Amino acid sequence: MSHDSTAAPEAAVRKLSGRRRKEIVAVLLFSGGPIFESSIPLSVFGIDRQDAGVPRYRLLVCGGEEGPLRTTGGLELTAPHGLEAISRAGTVVVPAWRSITAPPPEEALDALRRAHEEGARIVGLCTGAFVLAAAGLLDGRPATTHWMYAPTLAKRYPSVHVDPRELFVDDGDVLTSAGTAAGIDLCLHIVRTDHGNEAAGALARRLVVPPRRSGGQERYLDRSLPEEIGADPLAEVVAWALEHLHEQFDVETLAARAYMSRRTFDRRFRSLTGSAPLQWLITQRVLQAQRLLETSDYSVDEVAGRCGFRSPVALRGHFRRQLGSSPAAYRAAYRARRPQGDKPGEPEPVAMQPPSGQPVPASGLQGPGPMGSVPSMLHPERDSGVPIQSRRTAAAGAVSLLPGPRAGS
């Protein structure tokens, strides 16, 4: 899923300065960046596939700092161009940034700001969103990144409307994607925007990937507490909520347990997590329902009761909004994918071990981003119908995930 570029027409009509060319794509690489994310725009925009009906781009690979650039596995890369080459590009892609805690080089940020001022389209894949945010290009805009890093992005840059549910967000002249494979989704979307569905479909066939993926990052979200709030008194209240999801309680209950007024609790919760407490609570209940549908034979009515929903109707509504499917259809699809012989209640194979020590099931894993795991609790309710333009004018403190219209994949 994505936010469509048509939602931001004022950005889409910007004109390039005279020296920039629409068909030129500059990819900005940094030392310490992951090889997978870095290779995605190189493969999409740097290989001539005109024989398959894919219009050709001109690729400029630019070093964002002095080389050689070291990447995954100790490989060393030498970029053929420096930051000066960005001045010719109509699109500038930042595949990933090496550390969500380290500031990017100021020279690279200046180059991105100039490119944007001159009408270039700026793209951040995965943690590349942190570079765009550091340059001020995401202020007041909707954006996404890998779900593990969304709380940190929202907390560090409170004027950015972070939405970890999306595979990518197209805000016209600034685009961001979730982690790893979602970068392919966004690059396909760019080709589709530039040259139409047929060209994007031809490229998808060459890459052997779906031209459009349904759904977002919701299926991969983790229920763990973010490391940043582990020592905060509010963490105890959040932990209690996760242990008592089977009970019917509301945000007022949580505020009372924290000995705070509702208003103070909402403000503290947002500042620590980047999410509104009601949004977070609803999504935790949906995640719990998802697990029960995968691992038990409880009826949908029983699942609703065991997840704290007041009725099966409430479960179905929130489940469909967050996962795009009914609970019954989700269970049927999950069991159809499960290897024969598995029984409900049997644990899934462990695909990775986060730093917290809690195993993540293979069925609920997108894969880690370039840096270490940072579990997320930034899980909002979906589809309030608030348009992107309205979200841009929201109060600066409203860093919860502000849902809006969806299109694409």
Automatic annotation (TrEMBL):
<protein>
    <submittedName>
        <fullName>Helix-turn-helix domain-containing protein</fullName>
    </submittedName>
</protein>
<dbReference type="Pfam" id="PF12833">
    <property type="entry name" value="HTH_18"/>
</dbReference>
<dbReference type="InterPro" id="IPR029062">
    <property type="entry name" value="Class_I_gatase-like"/>
</dbReference>
<dbReference type="GO" id="GO:0043565">
    <property type="term" value="F:sequence-specific DNA binding"/>
</dbReference>
<dbReference type="InterPro" id="IPR002818">
    <property type="entry name" value="DJ-1/PfpI"/>
</dbReference>
<dbReference type="InterPro" id="IPR009057">
    <property type="entry name" value="Homeodomain-like_sf"/>
</dbReference>
<dbReference type="GO" id="GO:0003700">
    <property type="term" value="F:DNA-binding transcription factor activity"/>
</dbReference>
<dbReference type="InterPro" id="IPR018060">
    <property type="entry name" value="HTH_AraC"/>
</dbReference>
<dbReference type="InterPro" id="IPR052158">
    <property type="entry name" value="INH-QAR"/>
</dbReference>
<keyword id="KW-0805">Transcription regulation</keyword>
<feature type="domain" description="HTH araC/xylS-type">
    <location>
        <begin position="235"/>
        <end position="333"/>
    </location>
</feature>
<dbReference type="Pfam" id="PF01965">
    <property type="entry name" value="DJ-1_PfpI"/>
</dbReference>
<keyword id="KW-0804">Transcription</keyword>
<feature type="region of interest" description="Disordered">
    <location>
        <begin position="330"/>
        <end position="409"/>
    </location>
</feature>
